Amino acid sequence: MSISELVKLPPIVGIFGLLIALALYFIVKRYPEGDDKVKKIGDQIHLGAMVFMKREYKMLTMFLVVLTIIVWLALGKETGIAVIVGAVSSSIAGWLGMYAATKANVRTATAAKDHGSAKALTVAFFGGSIMGLCVAALGLIGLGGLFMVYGLGGDLSPENLKRNVHALEGFGIGASCVALFSRIGGGIFTKSADVGADLVGKLEAGIPEDDPRNPGVIADNVGDNVGDVAGMGSDIFESYCGAMIASIAIAAIMGSTALMFLPLALATIGLVASILMIGVVKIFSGAAPATALRIGTLGAPVLFLAAAYVLIQKIGIETSVLDDIDTPLKVWLAVASGAAGGVAIGLITEYYTGGSPVRKIAKSGKTGPATVMITGLSVGMQSVVIPLLVLATIVFVSTSLVGIYGVGIAAVGMLATVGITMAIDAYGPVADNAGGIAEMAGMGKEVREITDGLDELGNTTAAIGKGFAIGAAALAALAIIVAFGAVVQSHHAAFSMELSNPKVLVGLFIGGTVPFLVAAITMTAVGDAAFEMINEIRRQFKEIPGLLEGKAEPDTAKCVDIATTAALKKMLLPGAIAVGVPPLVGFVLGAEALGGFLAGALLTCVLMALFMANAGGAWDNAKKYVEKGNYGGKGTDTHMAVVVGDTVGDPFKDTSGPAMNILINVMAIVSLVIAPLLTVNGIFS
Question: Is the dihedral of CA 576, 53, 61, 532 positive or negative?
């Protein structure tokens, strides 16, 4: 079959993936919600999440309307349409995943009570799988559909390539803007509720986590869905599509139809591999849940790479493009380097957030909160080193094999099996919610032990997912930056990004500051929102008679409203910075300065993201390690110390850290889209 015929496959397989997700949803819905008390709690979480998403999407729509008009007028209707398609695809993926998760959490808790851990794992994993499949499927439908409609499968005339490949980049802008608002807004929501509920409930009132007397626990559980499911889904979606867009843009400059289509073809077989491995995880989950999830994590890339080898040999890559008769093999090796690197970064993250460093942090709690903070910060800093070396290795290997195209296709290799990766990651919040529901509904110690076991496993999968997301975002952003340089070079032969160029150095320093600014804004946002949350919870404990005695119900809706309002207000400024600063640098200082800006921002974002995510995850698991009875267990001074560490780590790992992933991708894709409009020296030309 020719490329013009194969180009129809990605959207078709994407539709198939959505149908599988729908089938999993109906399987989840077949499980009972539980008694009226359990159902009421589940409905409160679902309603809170839906209210937040509706309000968030309203604000996002207004922002995107303005952005689309600007893009439409400046770059043409094709790019404007692509912005809309990208935003809609990302929004639907996040909404569907979050909706399914809020239906799966209550059923997971009830399955744990009625049938035990095996059924509970099945429900939680299928709930997470819906998110994973929606991300992968809608990426193929949206981007693959545009690729097909814009005629990139057959028309290789210079005019068509220049116009339509550039139009595809608008898809990345739409997806990235949704991801930025979803991740930052959801992160502020979830951590303001979590910090407030923990500080007042655990430390001041001395009541357990997820105690139904605590007014903040419903908001905390809502936050798990809007931040860790919808936000994470949009985060991965934009990296997934960004890597494909960058590879297509580089291949267009090279003039290769096969290399242009290859990213979509790889993502297509990656989705098929993910679907197959979801079935494998289900088969093995009854006997050994942890082993089953690991089989899924490691098995999908192996299956994908085997299929990718056959695909690359058959797709007909023009050897003249890279002047090398071994081009197909070298392209496959570049893909393999990305896939292997993604697994490696995930496993390294797992060690730093679940291995001996966590026990070291827990032990430091014996001497108070200060030593917990010092040890956790040192673990976070140390955890940056090996993943950065892995990324450097991927870049070196892939570019040595197939030039600048190697960076993009390695990123696609890392992200192709996003269906199973995201499924295993989204399983974590569903299991966490199930534990909260079990506690609030008073299901008993045995049920809570089952859900806690699922939650502990979920913490590990979430840590692996965060590490994978950071590595994927870094590689995808680097691919987009490489594409940016190639596009500018095609318009301006004098363009260079040499460090001896003062403008490149100026841009480098400016770019390095932006991640720190955005991290400060998001950390402050969580602190301010948590301050309001803490005061509200304290007020309710004080003013609602019988609340602490369990004789009255808390006003949970007020806490949800506080978190929602704070999140929606505070997410606007980071979004404006991410979208607005690259054009400012590019048009004022020129393309060379913008290239330096992107390089500085990329390195700082990756360092900050790894440091904050891993330090936060390690603090969280150190707290859980103590709560299992180690070093005195709950209620001791050691426990109080590690709770403080966990509280500081919450916005690290779930708000500011994840914001770095999206920040660099948004700035990179905006720069790529405006690249043809830039001059080398800006207004100083």
Answer: negative
